[in-house]
Request: fold
Amino acid sequence: MTRYPRYKRVTSAITLALAAVWLGYLLLWPNTNATASGGVPVGGAAPDFELKTVTGESYRLSDLKGKAVLLNFFATWCRYCEEEMPVLEEAHRLYADQGLVVLGIDLDETDLAITAFQEELELTFPILVDRGSNVARLYQIVPLPTTYFIDRDGVVRGKWTGAITRDQLREALELIL
Reply:
C-alpha cells in the first residue's frame, strides 16, 4: 500500500471539505423565482442603477425605458458565464433592431480581465463594471451567472440562474420583446 505524505492527505481533506461545502451551498440555494430567493421579484419594478464600462461610458437602467433589457450578472472566472456568452452575443445581434438591450454586469474585476474576456469572446454588447458589487447586492445575485429579463416598462418579467441555452433564452425573450 502506497502511503502519501501527510501534507498531501491534509491538502486533499481540506479540498474535499471545501468542495462539499460549496456543493451544498449550490444545491441548497433556491433556484426559483426571485421572490423565493430574496432577489428582485418577478412582476416587480427593476431597481434603478447606474454603472460604467471600462472605457467610462455610463448606463442608467431608467434611461432604457421603452426598451427590453437583458441584465446578465457574471464574472470572467466563471466557466458557466463564459459558456453562455456566445448565446447572449447572438441575441444582442439578432434582436437589437427589435429594441433589445443586452447588458453584461461584471462583478468588480479588473479592467484588464474584463477587456481580455470581451476581446477573446468577441462580445459587442456593453459590459458594465459593478465596483464594490453594489448592484449585485441590490439584485441579490447568487449564484453566477444570473440573468434578469426586464420589459419596456421597467418590470422584471423573468429571472434565470445558471447558464442559459439558446432555446431557454429565446423563450425568456418572448416575455419582454
